[in-house]
């Protein structure tokens, strides 16, 4: 495998590959598109699902100290008062009165509109939560919000999860779901959108042990990306400076990835102290303490929060997987996805469309697809079909040729090395299992 660790793909190349191969389309494209909204196509939806499954498996299913949950997007309006979002979830923003563009004040180091050159307004607050009405009457009392993070659904269910799972501290709740933020500046493809998906953990710990668990989760989350193939040289941890921290946060690290737009946050891990449970206890009037049987103490747990974006992770995996090399004297685009992330694991390709080959090819296909996400393709030349599978990141192609009819053997081709091995049909699934075994 060639090492192209330092080669960086441009965002335009990714956007075009994603559209060409069915990973990501612009939302409402036939109407001219809607700014910052994207649709995941047939391969994109598999990619995202693989990312979410890998996360869920790592942080929920393979651990005894975690429980999953799925909470509603619309929550009681008081939740957002308690969390501070109604009052504080806004960024100071500057506006251009000529072209009506708005920017986060912190994103600009000038007071001149980058788009049209007019002097910008003074910074002012802008609420980032999407507002809507619940029920038939559109008045002040029916205002609800689309959640800007999945976290609050886990804080307010702390007691429900604790009592139904009978877990002891430390333990965590995990959730994957959509969040909405009326971001002022969007763009850069799926990096920053107004509707996005998060994978969040709220890990409850005894005060005093928080620093240790914070470090634990920073390491754990960093390794998750590298285990799934993200190159270490494209991933780094950055600690927030004191003046960057939210008022309740003790410490925060970002896991940053070298996106085509440069180093940017992929995930944040914060020590949120006892802020969240204290606030919800205050606003709801319910006690949200934990009883420590060992020493008969009641206390409010501290929370360590690793919060990741599914879309940003998808962009990171796409960026890191992208590579170009030469095959048969021609430029080849290849997505070198880790097998766990690849949308299609195996392609079954009869060498020709001739009827004599079809029954055996279909037999192999039926066998292989029982175990792995598999595509069958008998169109065009074999070379073009290999290129297509390389471009969508399929780790292995199984080719059935005329000799297969005689010797009951097929060829397995490796995406990265392009090496081919000939194996008995009866061993194909076993060999692929070994090769694809993702852990
Ligand atoms: P940023 O500084 O980039 O706006 P943030 O610090 O506000 O991000 P958090 O509130 O920590 O983000 O959200 C946790 C994760 O959710 C982020 O690391 C990111 O992966 C994802 N995320 C947040 N906002 C967006 C968005 N507008 N579009 C896509 N993903 C997002």
Question: Can you describe what's shown?
Answer:
Mean pLDDT is 92; it is low at 1-5. The protein is built from 13 helices and 22 strands. The strands form 7 sheets. A 7-stranded mixed beta sheet has the order 3-8-9-15-12-11-10, sandwiched between helices. A 5-stranded mixed beta sheet has the order 19-18-20-21-22, sandwiched between helices. 34% of the residues are buried. By secondary structure, it is an alpha+beta fold. It starts with 10 loop residues before the first helix and ends with a helix. The protein folds into 2 domains: 11-74 and 148-318, BirA Bifunctional Protein, domain 2 (2-Layer Sandwich); 344-436, Rossmann fold. Strand 13 and strand 14 form a beta hairpin. It binds adenosine-5'-triphosphate (ATP). Adenosine-5'-triphosphate (ATP) binds next to strand 9, strand 12, strand 15 and helix 9.
How many domains make up the 3D coordinates?
2
CATH class assignment of the largest domain: Alpha Beta
Shape: globular
Helical percentage: 25-40%
Question: Major sheet, described briefly?
Answer: 7 strands, mixed
Main traits of this protein?
BirA Bifunctional Protein, domain 2, 13 helices, 26% strand, binds adenosine-5'-triphosphate, globular, alpha+beta, seven-stranded mixed sheet, 30% helix, five-stranded mixed sheet, 439 residues, disordered N terminus, Rossmann fold, 22 strands
């Amino acid at each position: 495998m060639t090492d192209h660790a330092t080669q960086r793909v441009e965002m335009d190349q990714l956007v075009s590959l994603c559209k060409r191969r069915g990973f990501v389309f612009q939302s409402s494209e036939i109407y001219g598109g809607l700014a910052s909204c994207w649709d995941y196509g047939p391969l994109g939806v598999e990619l995202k699902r693989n990312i979410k499954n890998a996360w869920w498996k790592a942080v929920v299913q393979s651990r005894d100290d975690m429980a999953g949950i799925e909470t509603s997007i619309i929550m009681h309006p008081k939740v957002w008062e308690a969390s501070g979002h109604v009052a504080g979830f806004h960024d100071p923003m500057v506006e251009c009165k000529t072209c009506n563009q708005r920017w986060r004040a912190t994103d600009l180091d000038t007071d001149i509109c980058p788009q049209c050159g007019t002097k910008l307004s003074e910074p002012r607050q802008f609420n980032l939560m999407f507002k809507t009405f619940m029920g038939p009457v559109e008045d002040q009392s029916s205002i609800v919000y689309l959640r800007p993070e999945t976290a609050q659904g886990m804080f307010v269910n702390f007691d429900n999860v604790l009592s139904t799972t009978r877990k002891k501290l430390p333990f965590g709740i995990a959730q994957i779901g959509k969040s909405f933020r009326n971001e002022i500046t969007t763009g850069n493809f799926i990096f920053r959108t107004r509707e996005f998906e998060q994978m969040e953990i709220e890990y409850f710990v005894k005060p005093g042990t928080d620093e240790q668990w914070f470090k634990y989760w920073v390491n754990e989350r960093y390794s998750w990306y590298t285990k799934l193939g993200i190159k270490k040289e494209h991933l780094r941890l950055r600690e927030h400076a004191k003046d960057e921290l939210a008022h309740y946060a003790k410490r925060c690290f970002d896991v940053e990835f070298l996106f085509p737009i440069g180093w940017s946050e992929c995930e944040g891990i914060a020590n949120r102290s006892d802020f969240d449970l204290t606030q919800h206890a205050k606003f709801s009037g319910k006690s949200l303490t934990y009883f420590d049987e060992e020493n008969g103490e009641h206390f409010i747990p501290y929370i360590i929060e690793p919060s990741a974006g599914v879309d940003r992770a998808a962009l990171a995996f796409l960026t890191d997987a992208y590579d170009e090399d030469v095959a048969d004297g021609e430029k080849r685009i290849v997505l070198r996805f880790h097998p766990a992330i690849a949308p299609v694991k195996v392609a079954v390709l009869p060498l020709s469309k001739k009827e004599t080959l079809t029954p055996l090819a279909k037999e192999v296909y039926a066998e292989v697809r029982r175990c792995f996400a598999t595509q069958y393709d008998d169109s065009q030349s074999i070379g073009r079909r290999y290129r297509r599978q390389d471009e969508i990141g399929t780790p292995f192609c199984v080719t059935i040729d005329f000799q297969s009819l005689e010797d009951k053997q097929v060829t397995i081709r490796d995406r990265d090395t392009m090496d081919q091995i000939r194996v008995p049909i009866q061993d194909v699934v076993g060999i692929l299992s070994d090769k694809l075994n993702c852990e």
